[in-house]
Structure formats: structure tokens, C-alpha cells
Amino acid sequence: MGKAVVFAAVSLDGYVARDDDVPGPLFDWYGNGDVEVTFSDEERVFRVTQATADFLRREAPGMAAMVCGRRLFDITDGWEGVPPNGEQVFVVTHRPADDWPYAGTAPFTFAPDVRSAIEQAKAFAGDRDVSLAPGDVAGQAVQLGLVDRVVLNLVPVVLGSGRPCFGAGGPAEILFEDPTVVVQGRRVLHLVHDVQR
Asked: From which residue to which does any coiled coil extend (predicted)?
């Protein structure tokens, strides 16, 4: 069985977006290099440094599915029906998007809670990994003991306030192992931590 992995671009003070949900400088590293890289959606091309490209090419291909919350789904309009990473997206919501233009045709599944979404995603993924979006979904998943690994793309900025990486309430204290991977990109430090068991 694959791993459940929180994958996030995060500020030094632990935020993944500003209060208005705009990531601001947190995503600048996706365009500050000259090496092209894509995830499963080959139409979304990023231009990063060689070190970041090598890191992403190691991490991204193992992701078969993504779990996100309804807020991120709404902000992105469900990426216009194309999963940003992996082949399937599982959206945690009590309000399925029946009026979404891509409903019924896009590889998106709506689940009532975090545990159900992750279980469905892992069943779909088999021995590949599942990416968990940061925010409330990640916080609940960590609290439930469903997270195996956290990949933080640490950006040297302090936002002061915003959307916390592990949600508004945040999980209880959880220990992680020392980083198994540390890669210095341009304006980003990539860190991979396994959950301490």
C-alpha cells in the first residue's frame, strides 16, 4: 500500500495562503528557473531550477490520487476537471458539486469525510501514493493518524497571517522524523519528513 503524503508550499510561519486564499510568493519557485517540469497534467508547465526539477521528478510520479477539501476545489474550480497531480481527485465535502460543468465526466469523487476520502484514494492508488492538500484536510488526516509523510516546500517569507498548513485548529502535537530529503532550490527549501511511529 502506498503512502498518504501532505504536499505543501509553506511560509516560514506555517501558512499555505494569505487570508484571502491567494498564495502570494509561495508559488514563485514554480516559475523561477529554466527547466520545464509537469505533473500529471502536461498542459500545466512549471519552470524551475534543476535541483527543484530533480526533486519534483522523484516525488510527483508516485502520486496516483489527490485528496483535497471543498474550499480548494471551489477556489480552483476543480482545475477545470483535470487532476493537478495523479489520475483521480477525492474531494472532502458534504455538498457534492452536482452543478459543476465537469460533474460526471471528470475523474473526481466526492466523499463525506477525510477518513473516507483517504481510504477511497488509497484503494484507487494501490501501491502508489496519495497526495493530501494542506489546510483542514491535512490537519484532520494528521490528527486521525492517516498521514505517513509530509513534504514541505519551505519558502523564505513570513505572511503574518493566513491559512495554516494544518488547518485552523491545528492537530495535537505530532512528532516527525528528521528529514530524509533536503534539497535547496531557488527561493525554496524542499523537505521530506516521515511521521514518527
From this structure: none
Answer yes or no: are the C-beta atoms of 133 and 72 closer than 8 Å. Answer: yes
Determine the residue type at 154.
L
Instruction: Please write the tens of the pLDDT for every residue from 97-138.
Output: 888 999 989 999 999 999 999 999 999 999 999 999 999 999
d(CA 80, CA 192): 29
User: Can you tell me the distance from the alpha carbon of 190 to that of 184, in angstroms, rounded to the nearest whole number?
Assistant: 6
Contact, 89 vs 111, CB < 8 A? no
> Which contiguous run of DSSP H or E holds residue 149?
strand 149-155
Per CATH, the number for 4-24+62-194 is 3.40.430.10
CA pair distance 69, 92, nearest whole angstrom: 5
- Are 64 and 126 contacting, i.e. CB atoms less than 8 angstroms apart? yes
Cα 130 to Cα 61: distance, rounded to the nearest angstrom: 11
Q: pTM higher than 0.85, yes or no? A: yes
C-alpha cell at 80: 477545470
The CA-based angle 28-78-75, given to 5 degrees, is 60
